[in-house]
Design goal:
Elements (H helix, E strand, L loop, with lengths): L2 E5 L7 H8 L4 E5 L5 H7 L4 E4 L13 E2 L1 H6 L4 E5 L2 E5 L2 H11 L8 E5 L3 H12 L4 E6 L6 E3 H7 L5 E4 L24 E4 L8 H8 L3 E3 L2 H16 L8 H13 L2
Parallel strand pairs: 1-2, 1-3, 4-6, 7-8, 7-10, 8-9, 10-11, 11-12
Antiparallel strand pairs: 3-5, 5-6
Pathway: Metabolic intermediate biosynthesis; chorismate biosynthesis; chorismate from D-erythrose 4-phosphate and phosphoenolpyruvate: step 4/7
GO molecular function, one term: shikimate 3-dehydrogenase (NADP+) activity
Keywords: Amino-acid biosynthesis, Aromatic amino acid biosynthesis
Length: about 260
C-alpha cells in the first residue's frame, strides 16, 4: 500500500472516494485489528497514511517526528513516511476549524459541551481553545478527572450554547442511537456531530426539529483529507476543492 487509511472498523469510510478526487494516487482502505496494528507500524510499508479510530494516539510511539500542532493536541491522523522516517500531523484540527468557519458557528465566549474525549475530541478541543471559547465541558458516561457526566451536564449545564458530538454513537449502522437528549438544553445555538454517515444523525434530527443549526462531519472529513494530501504530496491546494467534493459525497450518501 502506498497511500491509505488505517483504523479498526472502516466499512463506513468514504475516504477513498474523497482522496482519489483530490489527487492522482490510489488510496486504499486498510482495516487493522489491535493485534495487526503494531506489526503494520513497525514494517512501515506505506508512503503516507491517514489514521482513524482507535489508533490516533496509539501511532505516536512509532513516529520519529511529530509536528507542533499534533504534539499539542496529543493525537495524529496523518503520517508521512520519508525513507523510513515517520512524521505525524493532525489535519482533523484544520478540518474542524474549516467546518466552524464555513458554517458561521461563533464559539468565542460561549459555553460548549464536547461529547467524548477520544482522538477526534482532542482536535476539536484545540480548535475551541484557539477560538477563545468561554467554557468547555467534556462529557462522558462515567466519572473521570477533567470530565462531567451526562447527568451532570443536564442538571448543571443546560444553558450550553453549543453541543459537539465526537463519539461514534449514532454512526451507521447504529443510526437509531443518540449520545444525548437535547430536550433540557434550551439555549442551544448549534449542534455539531463529527459523524458523516448518516448525514443526519438522530442527534442532528432532534436539533433540526427545534430549528437549531445542525452540522454534520462531512465538511470536516473532506477538508481534513485536502490538508492531508498537502502533507502527502508536499504541495499547497486551494480550499475551493472542498465544496465540489463535499457535494459529490453528499449525493452518494443521500442515494444510499
Amino acid at each position: 500500500m502506498d497511500y491509505g487509511l488505517i483504523g479498526e472498523k472502516l466499512g463506513h469510510s468514504y475516504s477513498k472516494i474523497i482522496h482519489e478526487q483530490i489527487t492522482d494516487y490510489q488510496y486504499e482502505i486498510h482495516p487493522l485489528s489491535k493485534e495487526e496494528f503494531p506489526l503494520f507500524m513497525k514494517e512501515k510499508n506505506f508512503k503516507a497514511i491517514n489514521v482513524t479510530i482507535p489508533y490516533k494516539r496509539d501511532v505516536i510511539p512509532y513516529l520519529n517526528e511529530i509536528d507542533e500542532k499534533a504534539k499539542k493536541i496529543g493525537a495524529v491522523n496523518t503520517i508521512v513516511n520519508d525513507n523510513g522516517k515517520l512524521t505525524g500531523y493532525n489535519t482533523d484540527y484544520d478540518g474542524f476549524y474549516y467546518t466552524l468557519v464555513e458554517n458561521q458557528i461563533e464559539v468565542k465566549g460561549k459555553k460548549v459541551l464536547v461529547l467524548g474525549n477520544g482522538g477526534a475530541a482532542l482536535a476539536v478541543l484545540a480548535v475551541l481553545k484557539a477560538l477563545e471559547v468561554g467554557q468547555i465541558l467534556i462529557v462522558k458516561y462515567k466519572e473521570e478527572d477533567g470530565c462531567i457526566t451526562y447527568e451532570e451536564a443536564k442538571e448543571k449545564h443546560f444553558d450550553a450554547s453549543i453541543i459537539i458530538n465526537t463519539t461514534p454513537v449514532g454512526m451507521y449502522p447504529n443510526c437509531n442511537d443518540s449520545p444525548i437528549d437535547l430536550t433540557p438544553y434550551q439555549s442551544l445555538e448549534a449542534v455539531v456531530d463529527v459523524i458523516y454517515n448518516p448525514l443526519t444523525t438522530k442527534l442532528l434530527a432532534q436539533a433540526m426539529e427545534r430549528q437549531i443549526k445542525a452540522v454534520n462531519g462531512l465538511a470536516m472529513l473532506v477538508a481534513q483529507a485536502k490538508y492531508a494530501v498537502e502533507h502527502f504530496k508536499n504541495c499547497k491546494l486551494s480550499d475551493e476543492l472542498i465544496g465540489p467534493i463535499y457535494s459529490k459525497v453528499e449525493a452518494l450518501l443521500k442515494n444510499k
